[in-house]
TrEMBL record:
E.C. code: 3.1.26.4
CC terms in the record's Gene Ontology section: cytoplasm; ribonuclease H2 complex
Protein name per UniProt: Ribonuclease HII
Binding positions for a divalent metal cation per the UniProt entry: 16-17, 108
Organism listed in the record: Algibacter pectinivorans
Entry GO MF terms: manganese ion binding; RNA binding; RNA-DNA hybrid ribonuclease activity
Gene designation per UniProt: rnhB
Cell location: Cytoplasm
Length: 199
């Protein structure tokens, strides 16, 4: 499917996040303002792309975007304000990092809080429909994956390099065996009920 530009009349940013469903690490968001004539045949919702393609797209988006910003919200804050609020905050922080204020914001999903007084639209599966949201999804995912690769060095037994903090069987087995780290989200159900952990 060919993705479209949402609007070519105004300065518009797309925003998306990665890592909402993870047991460890940050939730990461990106905001991207693309030039009006931007096109790319590979770009799609990051979940539809291989890791190799995402890493290939990352420098292309960074070079060709008019502006982009990426922000992490870490596990301590996720535990304090909950994952939905943390996801929206990450998106707000990524928009803060744009060198120009957008006139309109398009958001992947159906939840967002107004940013300053800028009008916005939430679009379900927007990362598979609009180029700027797809670009934001790729940056959010690649920046987060690189962060998880880095903290994997510190705690290799959880294999974050492979699972990126998602609740795989292997990740849950490692939590059961080794307990949790400072990178785990303590407010999440880290193990199913039959493996209760005394936190």
């Amino acid at each position: 499917m060919l993705l479209a530009n949402h609007s070519s009349l105004i300065l518009e940013c797309g925003t998306d996040e990665a890592g909402r469903g993870c047991l460890a690490g940050p939730v990461t968001a990106a905001a991207v303002i693309l030039p009006k004539n931007f096109s790319n045949t590979i770009l799609n919702d990051s979940k539809q792309l291989s890791e190799k393609k995402r890493m290939l797209l990352k420098p292309i988006i960074e070079e060709q975007a008019l502006y982009f910003g990426v922000a992490h919200i870490f596990q301590e804050e996720i535990d304090e304000i909950n994952i939905l609020n943390a996801s929206i905050l990450a998106m707000h922080h990524s928009i803060d990092k744009l060198n120009k204020t957008p006139e309109f914001i398009i958001v992947d999903g159906n939840k967002f809080k107004p940013y300053k007084n800028i009008p916005h639209e939430t679009i379900i599966k927007g990362d598979g429909k609009y180029l700027s949201i797809a670009a934001a999804s790729v940056l959010a995912k690649t920046y987060r994956d690189l962060y998880m690769d880095k903290i994997h060095q510190e705690f290799p037994m959880y294999n974050w390099k492979q699972n990126k903090g998602y609740p795989t069987k292997e990740h849950r087995a490692a939590i059961k065996k080794y307990g949790i780290t400072k990178y785990h989200r303590k407010s999440f159900r880290l193990l199913p009920d039959q493996f209760r952990l005394d936190l």
